[in-house]
Specification:
heterodimer, A: 376 residues, alpha+beta, Rossmann fold, 2 domains, 20 strands, B: 278 residues, mainly alpha, globular
Chain lengths: 376, 278
């Protein structure tokens, strides 16, 4: 579950005022006739933590591979710092890479892995030793310097990979699903570790992930990618509260979506659903007669016993189909035949409804967000 | 009920396996044990046959020659095979499968035919010597056949696929991301090869090399045909001991020595492979 409070603090950061660290323009990659990344424009500010979030097959790993130089683009330009690196090999891009599979060098110790980038740069053993110690300290792996990767746990291996990617002071840190191979508890731990490191070092970071919680909790901004196209770019709060389209609305967190046509009612306007129900609209709305989708997050839905239905505002009759107790909240799946299934998350200490109960649900009109449907 | 069912299932398997187990016991294990018995009997128990093998220079020479040819074959396979497999890795999937088929192709041709083919190719009037003479690189035909060089060429030809295939399998298990990470960390192609690829491939090269070495110790046809009676390896010696002299007890002792050497090498090979997969 994602709550607003966790992300609102990061919303206030305004990365646009900072200098750009990466500028990607018109970037495309075709594999044969398949278009993996299509005409992407993206600017990441210096010191920013940006996530590229998308389902598998959305092109997010291809996009990362293009920035890292592991994949050659079909078209477009990549600028890192102020240098055009579109055709620069990965070794000269000054990028730290962390993979889901850790990709540690099996023949080297922890210290050897971390020292690799320094050794190939011809840095003397003595100077390298200091840097390596610093990096080991950074990821808190003291005492494990002489272990082989096969003797480490998954979390430790990933921390070695992070230290290895940071030790040479790269301009940019690229993380490709770095937490996906870890179990839940470790994932939490490494996530916090990464956040802390990124904050202390201030290194520009791009994280590729399919996990919305991960993106929400770590990023300054998120780029939601689907079918090789950026669907929306914004702060976690913006994306959650004001998604640009139905895909973003459905991909980030649970969503109740209602499809209908905007119609006038009295002084205001309503969304007239196909089933006949009319949902009130608050604030601005697109022109009358247009098709639109209304998004209401489950935690904004109020569920009341049918007997307490308020007379002065809308409340839709329903019956409770399922009750899921999740500790801090209770999640109710309700059925309202003309509207369809709706999910309500309530902060009930103990469930107040049981399956089969009659109830009615409503929300404050200003808590709903309207997405205008694309013209077919 | 469930336990009883388990037992009947187990019993059924045992019945099904019995003929095979019996077959292996009778036709393989029993003869091996008989051979071991012969090597230690006169007919009373003795180690005389082993002492005889170790005291007679000709047998030591044959063992020495066998070990030398096997070593040279193994080294040649490593030198020829390693670059081939490294190169294969960089090919497109299509190119890789074509090359693998080319490597595997000789398997479908009888080893005897392949060995005789070398006589045609490497003979004094063969294509190799004719080309060398035509190019004025040599004045008279090079003696490729009926010596150790000929045996070596023939054996490398037979054994190269046995080196290439396991190594290829080992290389394809390498995590490509490792090399991508190394590249992003500033490693040049050369640095990545020397610092990463070569050390990573060490255990699998050693495992494939011991396999080739083990196989080459038992070669018979190639030294017989391409050695022309001048190159005697252990298997050829055994042939003489069994069919010509005949001294079966000495043959049994020699076979046992060969078998123990191979078992030790197989253990090394197993260790290398299991150590690598960790």
């Amino acid at each position: 579950m994602i709550s607003h409070q966790l992300t609102s603090e990061r919303d206030t950061l305004a990365p646009v005022s900072r200098r750009p660290a990466i500028e990607v323009s018109g970037l495309s990659k075709h594999f044969g006739t398949v278009c993996a990344v299509s005409d992407v424009d993206l600017t990441v500010a210096e010191g920013e933590f940006l996530s590229i979030l998308g389902p598998s097959g959305s092109g997010k790993s291809t996009l990362l591979g293009l920035v890292a130089g592991l994949i050659q683009p079909t078209g477009g330009r990549i600028v890192i710092g102020s240098r055009d690196v579109t055709h620069v090999p990965p070794a000269q891009r000054d990028i730290g890479l962390v993979f889901q599979s850790y990709a540690l060098f099996p023949n080297m110790t922890v210290a050897g892995n971390i020292a690799f980038s320094l050794a190939v740069r011809g840095i003397s053993r003595r100077d390298a030793k200091e840097r390596v110690e610093w990096a080991i300290e950074l990821v808190r792996l003291n005492g494990l310097e002489h272990r082989k990767p096969s003797q480490l746990s998954g979390g430790q291996q990933q921390r070695v990979a992070i230290a290895r990617a940071l030790v040479f002071g790269p301009k940019l840190l690229l993380l490709d699903e770095p937490l996906a191979a870890l179990d839940r508890k470790l994932r939490e731990e490494v996530r916090l570790e990464l956040r802390r490191l990124q904050g202390t070092l201030g290194v520009t970071t791009v994280l590729v992930t399919h996990d919305q919680d991960e993106a929400m909790s770590m990023s300054d901004r998120i780029a939601v990618l689907a079918q090789g196209v950026i669907q929306q770019l914004g702060s976690p709060g913006e994306l959650y509260r004001q998604p640009a389209n139905r895909f973003v609305a459905g991909f980030l967190g649970a969503a109740n979506l209602f499809h209908g046509i905007i119609a006038r009612e009295g002084n205001g306007a309503v969304l007239a659903l196909d089933g006949g129900t009319r949902l009130p609209l608050a604030g601005d709305y697109p022109s009358l007669g247009r098709r639109a989708t209304m998004l209401v997050r489950p935690e904004r839905v109020n569920l009341q016993p049918a007997t307490e239905a308020p007379a002065n505002r809308f409340c839709i009759d329903c019956h409770v189909a399922d009750v899921v107790y999740q500790g801090e909240i209770v999640r109710y799946a309700v059925e309202a035949p003309p509207v369809g299934p709706v999910i309500a998350s309530c902060q009930h200490v103990v469930p107040r409804f049981s399956p089969g109960d009659r109830a009615c649900f409503s929300w404050r009109p200003e808590d709903a967000w309207l997405i205008q449907d694309k013209e077919e | 009920m469930w336990l009883a069912r388990m037992k009947t299932v187990k019993l059924r398997f045992a019945v099904m396996l019995a003929p095979l187990v019996l077959f292996v016991l009778l036709t393989f294990d029993l003869p091996v044990l008989t051979m071991l018995g012969w090597s230690f009997s006169n007919p009373t128990p003795t180690v005389r046959h082993y002492l005889y093998v170790f005291e007679t220079p000709v047998y030591l020479k044959v063992i020495g020659k066998t070990l030398r040819i096997a070593s040279l074959t193994t080294i040649s396979c490593v030198i020829l095979g390693y670059p081939l497999v490294y190169w294969l890795r960089g090919l497109s999937p299509r190119g890789r499968s074509i090359c693998l088929v080319l490597v595997l192709l000789p398997f479908w041709i009888s080893i005897l035919i392949r060995t005789y083919a070398w006589i045609v190719i490497l003979g004094n009037d063969g294509i190799v010597n004719r080309v060398l003479i035509a190019m004025r690189l040599v004045h008279q035909p090079v003696q490729f056949l009926y010596n150790e060089l000929g045996v070596l060429i023939g054996m490398v030809n037979v054994l190269l696929p046995f080196f290439v295939l396991p190594l290829y399998a080992a290389f394809s298990r390498f995590d490509e991301r490792c090399f991508q990470a190394a590249a992003s960390l500033g490693g040049s192609r050369r640095a990545i090869f020397w610092r990463l690829f070569l050390p990573m491939s060490g255990p699998s090269v050693a495992a494939s090399a011991t396999l080739v070495f083990i196989l080459s110790l038992g070669f018979y046809i190639t030294p017989a045909v391409l050695g022309g009676g001048n190159v005697t390896m252990i298997a050829n010696m055994l042939d003489v001991l069994i069919n010509t002299l005949p001294r079966w007890e000495t043959a049994a002792a020699l076979s046992t020595i060969l078998m123990i050497t191979i078992l030790i090498l197989y253990m090394v090979n197993y260790r290398l492979r299991s150590g690598f997969s960790n």
